[in-house]
């Protein structure tokens, strides 16, 4: 059994022309140069401010809430859940804010 029967890649020099391009592929976009990031029309809009608000919530409000949480009212909750929920929200907001159509 040779490797072409297994479905793996087999290099065949006859499929390439003198320039090194595949002769059997017509105008394939997969090798095209990707657009430069500065060419995209992106600006710091309300999505960016939403991410900044989540950063403030995660790094300022949550630690302050832990600091001022009364020790007799579920201190374990304060140390585990108060940092966890804003961190998850920050992660989700960052992904949402940076992926644009």
TrEMBL record:
Record's keyword terms, sorted: Membrane, Transmembrane, Transmembrane helix
User: Which residue ranges traverse the bilayer?
Assistant: 49-69, 75-96
- Top-level taxon of the source organism: Archaea
Acidic residues: compositionally biased ranges: 15-31
Residue segments, region Disordered: 1-41
InterPro entries for this protein: DUF7977
A Pfam family this chain is assigned to: DUF7977
Name of this protein: Cox cluster protein
Q: Which organism is it from?
A: Haloterrigena gelatinilytica
Give the lineage. Answer: Archaea, Methanobacteriati, Methanobacteriota, Stenosarchaea group, Halobacteria
